[in-house]
Fold Glycolate oxidase subunit GlcD.
Amino acid sequence: MLPQHVRERLRAIVGEAYCLDRPEALVAYSYDATPMHQALPDAVVMPKDTAEVQQVIKLAAEAGIPVVTRGAGSNLCAATVPVGGGIVLVLNRMNRILEIDEQNLTITVQPGVRTSDIHQAVEARGLFYPPDPGSMVVSTIGGNIALNSGGLRGLKYGTTKDYVLGLEAVLPNGEVIRTGGKLMKDVAGYDLTKLLVGSEGTLAVITEAILKLIPKPAMQRVMLATFANLTDAARTVSDIIASRIIPATLEFMDQGTLRVVEDFKQIGLPTDAAAMLLIGQDGDPETVHRDVERIASICRQNGAVQVKVATNAEEADEVMTARRSALAALSRLRPTTILEDATVPRAAITPMVEAIQRIAAAHNVHICTFGHAGDGNLHPTCMTDARNPDEIERVERAFEEIFAVAIELGGTITGEHGVGIVKAPYLEWKLGEAGVEVMKAIKRAFDPNNLLNPGKMFARERRNRVVVNHAQR
Amino acid sequence: MLPQHVRERLRAIVGEAYCLDRPEALVAYSYDATPMHQALPDAVVMPKDTAEVQQVIKLAAEAGIPVVTRGAGSNLCAATVPVGGGIVLVLNRMNRILEIDEQNLTITVQPGVRTSDIHQAVEARGLFYPPDPGSMVVSTIGGNIALNSGGLRGLKYGTTKDYVLGLEAVLPNGEVIRTGGKLMKDVAGYDLTKLLVGSEGTLAVITEAILKLIPKPAMQRVMLATFANLTDAARTVSDIIASRIIPATLEFMDQGTLRVVEDFKQIGLPTDAAAMLLIGQDGDPETVHRDVERIASICRQNGAVQVKVATNAEEADEVMTARRSALAALSRLRPTTILEDATVPRAAITPMVEAIQRIAAAHNVHICTFGHAGDGNLHPTCMTDARNPDEIERVERAFEEIFAVAIELGGTITGEHGVGIVKAPYLEWKLGEAGVEVMKAIKRAFDPNNLLNPGKMFARERRNRVVVNHAQR
């Protein structure tokens, strides 16, 4: 529990209604979307503006209290679980779209704005904000920025980082900085904007963002292609890219995922297929039509069992919903679903998927794989039961082997979910000791007292699910 | 001069022929493309590979000797002038294209590869590396990465940073790190890749880079439009963007530049026009034709005096050459040419150009302005004489006022040239004290002994051209 005088000051800053420390409130903010990670905070604080954030951070710095910034808590790496106790700083009240600037093609937002609200607001003006993480109907833009969220349009359009032009942020010492601006080019010093994107709340609290917009593509089309084996599907992906087409979306589902999704949604997916690709293109009509035809032809040349181009908006929605429901469908199978995101160079998808299947069999665990084939970002997803320690031990070992293979193939331990607690033990596999040391030095440069989101990114040596809060003050 | 034992060890590392300390060699590496900045190094060292770079850096760290990494020296912010003396580390021997990977759409290069050689190599395979800085026929990719170079295609395609996927770099302590990879998505820790891009050789020595490629656009077209006044030209830029077209190129020249270029190239530019736009589009033929027609129509609606669409490759070349020769043409007028790059949000181009003209008149200095209108990146260019201290004093004051206006308009002190020595005194104007302090802390985290490119980015309080080397060991 926080000292009395700290609690009083927090209440004075944000108001009685926005500083919670009843047990039920603390429990509500003790976990996020990541299974098997939980830790109680000491208080939940909901500031209404940057000035209040600044006051909370200054108070926390004086009192030496950890601060974990949180939006919707939809992340999958336990990035917002308060393992060091302290304050959970919830930014959902700061949820205003401050400006859509149609001349400079930017939108300025507070961190608590929902991602899908940004989509709606800008598309109503003929503009487009491409990043579309799976959680976009609940996730906040602040969370997307903190985690550098990806999505289904990453292949052609990139990720959140590619759209953040400027930030306002409160440093661990309580100072406010402003980086970048409504500027397509800015080389005034180190790129603090891009450094803060993906820093998982460990370097600063993001309180405002300027995002880049682009014109909304005139049209979009999607298609499904199913394959009798994995190799045909993977070769299709390579051949599409080799023919100099960059689809907006190029998604993969293995047989396991396909069957579960069909069982859940019943939209007529061929459950005997070994693999499915969901391919979308957008842009000017001529380009889209030509690309769709060429892609369909490449699918057929590579032995696709079925190629189905959505002919209207309902069919297209159905197809996209099938893909977007993969996680929900898989979650119905067993009590616990662990979604990972080992990522490899696009050309290494076949060996990666094959390795996942081999490793799952060897450890007798149930893993289905789907993901963003076009950018090599796969989501091997394990259906398991957190109450079975023996099985969980095997799951952990299987994922360890999967990460090791990803690294061997020139990939990374996380493509879009972040490090948080979950990947911290493996960070050195990707970066080497020297790389991790540099990152720790950057962390110390910003936050010498380790108060912003402690225990993340550089945490313990081994995975350790279900963490209890041992930092009682 | 370096101690005898250090000179001997440098020779042992790189070989006699690649360690120079004769006066004429030191003079050759005492300046770069930035006028009025010069300082002698103590030695010039040309390593052939990463291992040699690593050994040089370790030796420099032990002996406490500054190291300034250098490619072609074509930068415009004095970033490679060795103001602290020490070693100039020239990476031009590391000039191999290591791999073009057509499946992953990447090119892996050593830092000494020329930018235009990358263009040629990938375009021969139907691929495209968009960044095209003005110096691209001499500049090296290592220099482009260190400075985050822009170019004429930034509006649609972004700058160097948007294409760097992975780096190998030698840290100031001699350790080698590898960041990123052939990966479109990677969120394993802080983004060291983007932090090193644009870090001006102050954080690490970049020894290898993986760059993203895209399919080469099927066609490109360019046009010229001239205007009787600045406002019409600026409104045209706004209207093009407002109509949801993002041209590949959207360049601006004021009357002063236009006249000098016409005098130099004699291609029939209307020298009575107040402003000229050079507009290019690329992509699929239907899109390009439609965009070119719409843009031409927008130009006419805004009162363009003349709109001339290049009808063949020769005409297009002529138009692009006119723009690319602006600096060369202006340089013929007076002994010294100072090219700046104040940058503002696109919508603020008119007030910025008007302010430049007003400030130039007030200080009685000759400034012509051209630049990348589409991304608000302007190059006010002053024709002056370094030998006239009174005039130079007025030039400095004029540029100071120009930077101040850029900041007021929500812009920055440098869009694509970098901070180096030239902009260091103004960095705080853009970032505030807290922002600069964070950057200094990052610098210390990487390089606690301040050996990599000292005296840059955070240098003296005031501009001070013609710096002498006062660090004699």
Q: What stands out?
A: Residues 462-473 of chain A have pLDDT under 50 and may be disordered. The domain at 334-417 of chain A is CATH 3.30.70.2740 (Alpha-Beta Plaits).
